[in-house]
Design a protein that fits this description.
Distance between the termini: 36 Å
Helix content: 25-40%
CATH topology: Inosine-uridine Nucleoside N-ribohydrolase, Chain A
Number of domains: 1
Number of helices: 13
Largest sheet: 9 strands, mixed
Strand content: 15-25%
Order of helices and strands: EHEHEHHEHEHHEHEHHHEHEEEH
Radius of gyration: 18 Å
Structural class: alpha/beta
Number of strands: 11
Shape: globular
CATH class: Alpha Beta
CATH architecture: Alpha-Beta Complex
Length: 323
């Protein structure tokens, strides 16, 4: 069976890094064509370096390209208070032997799509602001013909985490989100409604941290930083938001999804960055219903699949990295 072709657009970021570990543990099921970095959780310099180091550490032998250093309209918004000064919960990964591509991420995306075999398409997994993808679609409109779907972490049907109604990735660049939402490309929105239920409990994080397994330990250390240095400590659990698009790809049965029409508020004011999910499928033509939103998740299955994957990945790494 032919593997699904994947391009990852991300802003590592603790949960982005854990998502890359989960992807690496399952790379026998995908063909990952590349990773593009976008300004978000930290500056473009930091997230690009993190993407390169994390990918190589976990055994993802794929090109990494540096993308947009800020949103389309506003100044960059970072989340250093969540992810730490280095973006990885102050965890230090070995410096990668490889180098970031000289080619800009948007041009890399276009070239990669253009070079696909005839009739083949790519699934894009986006776990940061949608700036790179929006720029691709504006500069090269025909590129969307090569995109099967975009599965992205962002948004919320109810409630936000940056403002009462806006989630970070969408709030960071709502204009970019609007371009993507209006593109006609099939979308799966993995928003806070589902990702806040996709957590690791404090005792699970502690067990990962205490493990001699290299993948489990460093992911536990990163998750532990967020758990102990943010409001997550009061919940006693930490959401691993950016694993959800990958988990949905492999285990859609653990999520509740509904068809929707997506839009976003771009005006300045208290509602900026709010995602609007129109669930009234009966009010729309069938051809317009190409998108879905995740509304719920099976927390125990998420934890089981993620923890198992991290330990399995670590077993493959033990010959390369000493405990």
């Amino acid at each position: 069976m032919e593997k699904r072709r994947i391009i990852v657009d991300c802003d590592p970021g603790v949960d982005d890094a854990i998502a890359l570990a989960y992807a690496a543990a399952n790379q026998d099921k995908f063909q990952i064509l590349g990773i593009t970095a976008v300004s978000g959780n930290q500056s473009i310099e930091k997230v690009t370096r993190n993407a390169l180091n994390v990918a190589e550490y976990f055994g993802l032998d794929v090109p990494v390209a540096r993308g947009m250093e800020g949103p389309i309209v506003k100044e960059p918004l970072s989340a250093g208070e969540i992810h730490g000064e280095n973006g990885l919960g102050q965890c230090e990964f070995p410096e990668a032997a490889g180098a970031v591509l000289e080619e800009h991420a948007v041009l890399f995306l276009y070239r990669t799509l253009k070079e696909l075999p005839k009739g083949k398409k790519v699934t894009m997994i986006a776990t940061g602001p949608l700036t790179n993808i929006a720029m691709l679609l504006k500069l090269f409109p025909k590129a969307k013909e090569k995109i099967l779907e975009i599965i992205f972490m962002g948004g919320a049907v109810m409630g936000g985490n940056v403002t009462p109604s806006a989630e970070f990735n969408i709030y960071a660049d709502p204009e970019a989100a609007s371009i993507v939402f209006q593109s006609g490309i099939p979308l799966v929105m993995c928003g806070l409604d589902a990702t806040l239920k996709c957590t690791l409990k404090r005792n699970q994080v502690m067990k990962l941290c205490q493990s001699g397994n290299p993948a489990a330990k460093i992911c536990g250390d990163m998750a532990g930083f967020v758990l102990e240095n943010t409001s997550a400590k009061y919940r006693g659990e930490v959401s691993i938001h950016d694993v959800v698009p990958w988990m949905y790809l492999l285990h859609p049965e653990i999520f509740t999804a509904k068809r929707t029409i997506l839009s976003v508020e771009c005006a300045d004011g208290p509602a900026r960055g709010t995602t609007i999910c129109d669930l009234r499928w009966w009010d729309h033509d069938e051809e317009g219903l190409t998108s879905a939103v995740l509304l719920d998740a099976d927390q125990e299955k998420f934890q089981e699949y993620l923890i198992t994957a991290l330990y399995e990945l670590g077993e493959t790494m033990k010959g390369k990295y000493k405990e």
